[in-house]
Each structure stands twice: as structure tokens, then as C-alpha cells.
Amino acid sequence: MTGSTFGKHFRITTFGESHGPAVGVVIDGVRPGIPISIRPIQKELDRRRPGQSRVTTARKEEDKVQILSGVLEGRTTGTPICMIVWNKDQRPEDYKAIIDVFRPGHAGYVYLAKYGIADFRGGGRSSGRETVARVAAGAFAKILLAKRGIRITGHTLEAGGVRAVRFLRGQIEKNNLRCADPEAAKRMERGILRAQKRGDSVGGIVEVIVENPPVALGDPVFDKLDADLAKALMSIGTVKGVEIGAGFAVARLRGSQNNDSLYYDRRKKRFRTRTNNAGGIVGGISNGEDIVIRMAVKPPSSIALKQRSVTRSGKSVDLEIRGRHDPCICPRVVPVAEAMVALVLIDHIEQQARVKKSVGMLRSYTR
Amino acid sequence: MTGSTFGKHFRITTFGESHGPAVGVVIDGVRPGIPISIRPIQKELDRRRPGQSRVTTARKEEDKVQILSGVLEGRTTGTPICMIVWNKDQRPEDYKAIIDVFRPGHAGYVYLAKYGIADFRGGGRSSGRETVARVAAGAFAKILLAKRGIRITGHTLEAGGVRAVRFLRGQIEKNNLRCADPEAAKRMERGILRAQKRGDSVGGIVEVIVENPPVALGDPVFDKLDADLAKALMSIGTVKGVEIGAGFAVARLRGSQNNDSLYYDRRKKRFRTRTNNAGGIVGGISNGEDIVIRMAVKPPSSIALKQRSVTRSGKSVDLEIRGRHDPCICPRVVPVAEAMVALVLIDHIEQQARVKKSVGMLRSYTR
Amino acid sequence: MTGSTFGKHFRITTFGESHGPAVGVVIDGVRPGIPISIRPIQKELDRRRPGQSRVTTARKEEDKVQILSGVLEGRTTGTPICMIVWNKDQRPEDYKAIIDVFRPGHAGYVYLAKYGIADFRGGGRSSGRETVARVAAGAFAKILLAKRGIRITGHTLEAGGVRAVRFLRGQIEKNNLRCADPEAAKRMERGILRAQKRGDSVGGIVEVIVENPPVALGDPVFDKLDADLAKALMSIGTVKGVEIGAGFAVARLRGSQNNDSLYYDRRKKRFRTRTNNAGGIVGGISNGEDIVIRMAVKPPSSIALKQRSVTRSGKSVDLEIRGRHDPCICPRVVPVAEAMVALVLIDHIEQQARVKKSVGMLRSYTR
Amino acid sequence: MTGSTFGKHFRITTFGESHGPAVGVVIDGVRPGIPISIRPIQKELDRRRPGQSRVTTARKEEDKVQILSGVLEGRTTGTPICMIVWNKDQRPEDYKAIIDVFRPGHAGYVYLAKYGIADFRGGGRSSGRETVARVAAGAFAKILLAKRGIRITGHTLEAGGVRAVRFLRGQIEKNNLRCADPEAAKRMERGILRAQKRGDSVGGIVEVIVENPPVALGDPVFDKLDADLAKALMSIGTVKGVEIGAGFAVARLRGSQNNDSLYYDRRKKRFRTRTNNAGGIVGGISNGEDIVIRMAVKPPSSIALKQRSVTRSGKSVDLEIRGRHDPCICPRVVPVAEAMVALVLIDHIEQQARVKKSVGMLRSYTR
What we know:
The structure is a homotetramer of 367-residue chains. The first copy, chain A, is an alpha+beta fold and 367 residues long. Chain A has helices at 38-48, 92-96, 108-115, 131-147, 182-197, 225-234, 255-258, 330-360, 362-366; strands spanning 5-6, 11-15, 22-28, 65-67, 71-72, 75-76, 81-86, 101-102, 151-159, 162-163, 204-211, 239-244, 262-265, 270-273, 281-282, 285-286, 291-297, 307-311, 316-319. Chain A has nine helices and 19 strands. In chain A, helix 1 packs across helix 8 (330-360). The radius of gyration of chain A is 22 Å and the shape is globular. The N and C termini of chain A lie far apart (49 Å). In chain A, 67% of the residues are buried.
């Protein structure tokens, strides 16, 4: 019951239900003196926001973020930063109609089993709305990473069975899918709208790439960088699988194919690999190559098609879910996934700050 | 640098390098009064042990476990349990020859970057030998789970491109692959020996199934049960991907296909699903169906084939690795994966113990 | 920099500066289904509030608490509870005048050393205003404890050299000192007003008594109940010493005097002690006797008397602090100390819930 | 039940019972490359060891420490360091005689209540023997602190009612009391032997002084340096009170007396205070002055004098404890208290390493 905190050094604690007064986050561990403005944070929230395009839900949530603490005259003070977003577009009546019937794929019945109580208001804490807090905190982390030259890019690699075959970064934010292949994006969109028309939804794959990551992030043996990334991404409600680098493809590779051969890059002054099957992480530690991570995104559970379900009292019924729902959640998962990756990276950077310094001090220790 | 601890309530801390005096684990949070013998723990270690069969390394490690604390007259006392395994078969000379050359796929160069020091003795802490500690602790957890009727079964689902098509539980421990399909096992073995002959290695997929799991394990929002399982499994050095239930296949399913329809099971007195695409976890919380989780296991990096690599001083060289190495690590990953799943489950069971009681107490609170 | 979180199972995270927009707290780990109203929480905040009487500061802060999450239709839902109090009575001009001079006894110069930044607005995070969040969370904890029949009572045992010699519980809230001895209270108050007139302040001792505590709280070896209580109370800005039971007096006792002799109480069905020098805690574990804990409260540092101090640029100056300050903080420390004790107790009760159940299960395990 | 871990960044986990096979500690978070030898660690253990002098117990424990991991060729590797001490002088028969009777002042009956089991072997985990692990880890921390010029000195300030009035550091290790005042030491010793002859024991006060501590250690608001020190020291079984600087004396001081006036020390290039009532910690953060902390040490509970007690079955009996026990534990608490202070300091130094660097980076951030 204390699962709302994430991170050790850059530590976030989130709160808020989908239809309560507000959602928000407290970030502890932010260094002092960092100039911070609300704009880039708001921009990330806008990327997550529903109602962006015709492939996302039509719900309107303005999601204006407000900073309650930790910032003085445009700079962080080193004290906890609380950000909140008031919930506005609450239409519990959409849900009250079906309050008594569990929705397949939703967590209502397991929440009931766990808590002896289930929030009828659209999912409560199990709703995707909690990701507002992740994105706000992640936006903060991304600002810090950008200052270090680290770039995090998420995109929809696959949706409804259509896979992107090109990677044109500049295209990502130009189509409704956040897909780096504009041709594929069009086909994805058509497929999604077709599914939506039938009252159905589609799944997909989201990929996040970290360019210019620091070398040496990740802590053996349990807090490996890839282990923490896997947890971070799997904690997103809609994700059912996570893979790094070659991922599940390694099952069919031989060692001689999968091993990334090593060389020394004199310009970058570090060891590098010629291929990147490892996805930038070896032995749980970043090696400086791009970190490449993909996640399986399930088709949204709220669909208009008639489904077989059950009432709280155990009676089998047919269910038709009304309301405004996403036919494919991938484009909105992109900023959430970027946020989670950013949070893991900044946390490990903070952790590593100590070690790095230590390595620099080896000489003084050893004399 | 504090990544050697895992779990909140049933918390393990591991120590030891591949070629130091010993590896071991301290378990804190074990309930008092539990009868415990060394035999089932030793048995799990024997399943992990090298030299079991011709598809694993020929290294001999006896791996006799010794309990140093926390047990009195055959019962746990509630105090920390320390178990150690002394390292015996140390042949650093195997490694000293190549001490100066980084091995592709190994963590030597990132450890050097991280710590300013690299243990030349066969990987040190990055060696698979640290999993001895995981298996010893996991064996303990499995004993506790078995008392609750929870069964954890790992098996090799795929190796070298051969996939099992049948699941005959009784067969798993009867072949060298720990594969539930004896026909597939034979073909896997042939493929592995062929690759080994060529000086190469093969990857695969290991699956773990949890039967009869408790309902309601998992903590929203970050400590979801699947998030913690993903971290646990991805922290195994050789794993590059983790998926739950339908996993990456959800990307190509529609909502109407992926949603598991609900009904009430009057005999079991709980809500159940007709299919199990969710893999036993909904909204991060166990729903009582079998938990099904798979992981991508990379082909072992230590191969005899000549590889292109680099020395510590940055010189490019050809490398041929001698020594005794596994051509396919899947059969030895099975007990490690089972151990990690067991550790996550027992930790969440301990966490949930409080909540469950609480739900039972709702009545008294509400009056 | 991540010191704003307290507790393991009933875990609070606080935020907010004295003169920022708001102060608040997120509580994670609250059980679901508990009826909760704002009134008892507001009542505790009113006890902490400045401007209560002539022995406290004349600043007026209404401190109206607002619940943002975790409560649905008057009951907890098991999700994080966020409570905030907006800051209203901000008069930074009182502080701006002295922005450049460090105030003796205040943390300005060490915050500057730590963060490279110092909040000029009346102490920022080092201000006593952060205790609003503690009291709000503690009020919550007290409600839960009261349901279990556990009563927590704080009182001013000593102030300005006057010590209470009687303990009349009913008197505590009837005088400005929160002293259980009305005669002593009068003399304390006279002494305080005298000191205030001279531009000075006085220290004191606050005691907290826990009646009817559960047996067996506290975790060997580092998380002993008294260790956690000591940390909780010493973390209050104004506290310079903590003692349990006989406390520092044990230094002059012999073993034969200090040992509490044991007997079995047939009515209460538990072992009891005839004396309570241990203060209810033996070996770090509660024994069921009253928990008695005292803390040394320093005289407030903000005094009107001219003091020798230094500017940021290192120049020695005379300083006269204006503004509205407490001549003795003891009466306002009382609710804060109660809150911290309540938070420690509920956290250990949640922890122990598991163990207790476990002990009850010993039989089933051992068969 | 997971209270055997201490620290966040320099984190220790201890294990072992008084009469089990071994006691030990795992330290995680030690920087790599630090030269380390067993000698200074052994030396600290020898200071803690029983049988040192006629004012301590006559039990003989050699307490030879052995390092199992984390050190390679005389240097730390950055991986967890496990140290164990085998238990040798086990005489359970001393205890078996009284197995059925609870000893006043001992934790037997509360352990029984907590765990449903009580280790009859001389206290098990509640025995002072667990401090072997603290001292071994603390010795390690002291080595690291010494490299930074930080000196930690513990001494017996008071015993059996005799208080030291001089502080001659060089004398501390020259008398049986570890008292800095040789005259007082003699009187203390006489008092102790007198009490012992009567079958009784005496209490005292131990003080620890940290010279040349870093400025800016300590994390607002809960993880204040003094809060963590208070917890660390109160977690020692025999300690019943902790105070910092002026401590409980502040209750009788006025603000004008207690405030330490500030000046700028041009040689040391930092702000200093003319007096040190704060004991080196302001607002929970170290200000660079000596850290001064005292703890109340209770008279040992194991005394030969006949005491009134109770059997497990609830029968009142007279008890005479045989065996070899300390008449005054202060001299043996000294190294334990130093160890705990060292562990807190190194942990906060590791934490602060990040912030400090951050403050140094303010400029780069702000441009």
C-alpha cells in the first residue's frame, strides 16, 4: 500500500484519483539553484492530454499544472517540489450507469478484492489519469537531462499490426500516432479508425531511445539500469512486456551474432561497440551507446463492443461501455514512457554522481 | 552502489564475487517458528550448479550451503538468516591469460568505467555466480509459498530456435534442457551441441508459471506486481526482455480479443476470467489466475570462436576465450528465474498480509 | 536531499516552505475503508497554530486543511491521501529587513552552505511551519490509534525552570502552557512573560505519554521502537535531547534499582512490571506499560534582545530581530510531539500486523 | 522484522545471535579502490571485546574478524563487503539453568510476545553480542573518516555517579573506564568494584565528540543529522537517552544564553559560532563546529543480587543470575557509540557528496 513512491535519489511520490479533486506529485531530491519554468512541464502534459486528435479519446482535460513548493523566484531551492493538476472534466455519471458491472480488462474487481472498496469514479487510482503525475515529474527530469546533453525520444513503432520501417525523428510530433515513419503513421491511423468504428481498439509497440547517455549508470546486482527501466515501464498500466536492445530476438541469435564487438573510440575517448544488440546496457550498466527499449502496449480495454462480464453480485451480464475512450493508447503512452525513462536515468545519475567522484578520488585514497 | 538488496518485507542482501572466498545472502523479515532444513535449499542450488549435464559448463562447484544465523533447533527465530557457500573451484589462471582483453558481451569495461577497477577473476560481482545467493534465498521463499499451496514452475520454452509445443510438467527435470516437451528437448540439445562444436552458443526463452497465486498482490501505482516481477527477472544478467501473459503479442490483438471476459466461480468463490491474456495480473494486481511470465535469455557471451575485441590500453585484438562455458544457459536460468519470482511473491504476500487483515477489519472500523 | 519522507508502512512525505504558496503532506499506506472527517485534523492544527494565547506568537494563521485525494464519500480508499494548507499570513517584509544578516540559532547559514541558496522568506523549509504537515498527518494517525484504544498525551513538564509536580490530565488544555499542573502553569506563564518583556525567551521539557500501547512493537536491531521515537522527536527543529523512561537518571541508578521487576497480570493476561523505569520499552520492543518519553526544548532563537551576529559578506553586526515570535515554544511543541509519536506508533503497528499474524500462525506452520 | 539494515548510502545489514555459529555484517555502498587492512578493524573489535579488564565481564571472546567479499588484493572493489566473526565461547549451560525464568531488564518476555519464540541462548539477537557487527562496520567507516581528517572520540563521562571534570584525550585508552579524566577514572573504578561485590551494577554517561566534521551534513526535515544520530545511539540496547550540545540543559537556558553568536572565521573561510550550545548541528545540519553528543547508559540488567521475577508459566519466583557479566558497560559502549556515530557521518557524507557537487555546479546550471 506504499507503492506511490518511485526512485531513491530523485524520488517522486504521486497522489490523486481520476475523479477526485486533483492529481499531483512531490519530487524530493532535486538539486538547488536550477532555473525552472512551468512551460516545458505544461508542454509535456499537453502531449499526454486526451482530446489531442481523432485517434485519442475526445475527453477534454486542460491539465494546467501548478507548483506549490520548492521553487523560489524561478529557481529550485533543494526542497521538495509539489506540483498539482486540478481535475476538471469529471463526469461520474458516465460511470455510475455501469457502477455495478466489472469491465473486462479493468482493475475494478481486483481493487475490490485488495481494498474491500472500489472507486466507482472511472477507475480511481487505477485510471490512466495517475500518469499526469508521472509526466509532470518526468518533464522535470527531462529538463535536467537536456542540460547534460541527453536526449530521450519516444515513438510509436507499431500499432494495429502496422510497423514503422523508417526513423525520421522530425516527423514524430507531426502525425497523430507519434510515429517516426509518416507513411506507416497513415496506415496505422486508418487501421485505428476502422477498429474504432467497429467499437474495438488496437495494441502496439512504443520504443524509447536515449541518445548520449552517461557511461556507468546502473547498480549491480539488483538495481541494474535495465532492471529499473523494466520496472518503470511495466508499472505503466497498459504495458505487458519490456525488452532492451535486441530483446526477445536474442532467443534466436547465436553468441557470435549477438555479442557486440568492442573497439576504442579515440575521439570520444571511450570503449565502444560496433553493433548495439545490448541496447546500451551491459551487465546492467550503461556502456554509452544509445539505450534502446521497447514496450508492448495492450489494446485499450474500454471498448464499445458488447462484452461478456459480471456484476458485483456475481451475475453474468452483457456489457456495452459508453463514454469517451482511446481506440489506441500508443501516442499518449509515448510521453509517459519518456517520463519514466527520464526518471530512472536522473535517479541513476544522482546515484552515480557519488561513485564517479569516488573514482576520480581513487588516486588520493590510494596514496 | 547499494544495489545488493532486494525486497521490502522479505528482504535479501547478497554478497560475494565469483572468485573470492564465498558468496552468500542475508534474509531479513522471515517469520519466526518456521521449520526449515538445509535439504530443499541444497536441492535448488544443485539445480543451478554448473557441471550438471553436457549442455552446461563442465566446471565443478559443489556449492554446499551453510546457515550462519536465524535458525534455532530447526526453526526460524525471526532474526536475519545468513547463508553462505564457499567458493572452491577457483582457477583464476583461466582468466589471467586474458586479463588484459575485454570480452565482448561481458561487463568488464563498464565495471572499469564505473568503479575504476575491474575484477580480473572471472567477472567478480558481474559473474553469474552471484545467482547462488538468489537461489538460496529463493529456495527459502519457495518453501514458504509451498506451505500456502503456491507452486512455481520454470521451464525452457525455447532454445536455439526450437520451441516447445507441449507442456508436460513431469518431464521438465528429466531432460538436460528443463524443457516440458521431451521431443523439443532432444532437438534443442542437438542444436546446442552443434553450436558448441562450432565454438558458439545459443539463446532461448524461459517461462515461469505460478499456480494458485493469492488474489490481490501488488501495489499501485509503481510497485505493481508485474513491475516488480519485470525488475526481478531483468536483473538476471542474461535476460534482455520480460513479458507477462500475452506479452508482446498484445501489440497485434484487438481489445475484443485481448480482454479476458469475467465470470463468478461459485466453487472458488471469486471472480475469474475465461481466458488469461493478462497473465494473472490486472492493473498491477494478481487476479488469482495463473501468473505466466517469460524472459528472453541471450546466448552466453563466452564463446570459443575468435572474436574482435580490444585491450585495456585500447588496442584492437582477436580474442579466443578458453575455459569451461555454457553453450546455452537456459536450463540453469530456470531455477534462478523461479527464485526471483518466489522472492517477489513472498515479499508481496508479506505486504498484503497487512492489507488483507485490514479489509477484514473494515467492519469494525466502520461501525 | 530526500529527507522529507518518514515511515515505512504508514509513510508520509511533506512539502512546502514557510512563505511559499502552501504546505502539505502525502500519506501513503493508509488502510481502506476508514471513516474520516476533517474536523479532528483541523482541531490538531488549531492546537499547533500560532496566535493561540499570549505566551505564543501573535501571528495569525488560519491553517485550514484541505484533502485532495485518497478519501471518497467520507472514507479512505487505500490510495495516498494528500492534505494541504495554504499559506496566508505572509509578511516577507518582516524578514526582508534582515535578509542580509544571519540570525543566531537559525539555520540560514548552514542552508546556504548546503544548498548554495537560502530562502529569505522566514526560514523556508527550516521554519517551524513545516510542522503543519506533521500535525495533519499525525492527527490522522491519532484517529487510527484512538480506534484501538491507544491514547497519546503530551504536556509541558517544565518551562523557564519551573517544573510541574502534579499530573492532572484534564487541566492540560485549560491553560496556555499545556501543563498538567495548573499551579506550575501559572508560574511558568509569569516567567515567560517576564522573559518576553526583557526581549528574551525560555526553554523547557515536553513529555509524551502513550497509554495502552500494544505489546511487541519495535524491530531489532536498528529499528527499535525507542530508536525510531528518538529520531522522530529529534527531527523536530527545536528539540536537543530525548529520553525514555528513567532517561538520563539511569546514569545514577544501580541495576537493582533500575531493573523493573516482573509479574504476571492475570486480568490483563500478560507479563507486567511493577515499576516503569524502562518507559514501556525493553530491548527496543514495547512491553505494554505506558510509553513515557521526554524531550528538551530549546528557548526560541528569535529574540528581540540585541545579539552579536554576522552578515552574508562576513561583517560582524549587532542584530535586533523584530516580528512576532514565541517566547516559549513548549505549548506549540506539544501537538507536534504527539503527532510524531503517533506516526511512529502507527507505522510500527502496521509492521507488526504481519508478525502478529505470523505468531498466530506458528501452530499451522509447525504441524 | 526488517530492522537489521542501517543507512541509505553506506548501508549495513547485520546478522547473528549471541550463541549461534557467527555474527557478521554486509556493508553495501563502499567506494571502490580504498586500501583496507584487517588490523584497524580487529583493533576496534578488541576495544569492544569482553574480558579486557576487571570492570568488564570475564567472558573470553577472541572475536577474530574475517572478510568474505568486496576486497581484492588489499583494496575495496565497490561490491558488498561481508565480515564475520565466529562465535567461540558458547556456554549455553550458563543460561539453560534459568531458561524458564525471565530476567528483569532483559528482552526475553517481549521477544516471546513478538516472535512466539525466545532464544534461550543468552539473549539471541537481543544480546549485546550483535554490536560486534556494528563495531566491525563502524571501524570501516572510521577509516574512511580518518582519511578526511575527521576524528571521532568516545569516552566515559560519568559512571556510578562520578563525573569526569577534565578532558585529557591521551588518557582515555589508558584506564579501564575509557575516561578522559584519570582521577575520576580511579574513583569510578572503585565504585564499580564496590557495586559488583554487592552483586549490583552501575550506570553512566558516554560522550562522543566529532572533531573537524564537514559542514552541511544532514537532510531536512526528517533526516536531520541529529535525528539520525539520536536513532543510531538509541538503537544501542543499553542507551535510554540522547542529547546534543547543551542537551537537556537548554530547558533552563534563556534564548540569549543558548544562542551561539556568529562570526566569520577568515582563516577557516567559514561562518563559526563563539559558543557551541548547538553541539555542532543547527536546523539538523552540521555547522562545522565539533559535534558533541551524550547518551545515558543504564546499569547492566544482569546482576547477581536476588531479584523478584516470573517464570514463563507466570509463577512468581526469586532469581539469582549467575554467569559472567559486566558491572558497568560504559567502557565497552564507547567503541560501539563511536561506531554508530561514524556510520551516520559516512552515510551523510555520501549523501552530501551529490549535493555539494551540485552546489559547485550552480553556476553552470544558472547560465
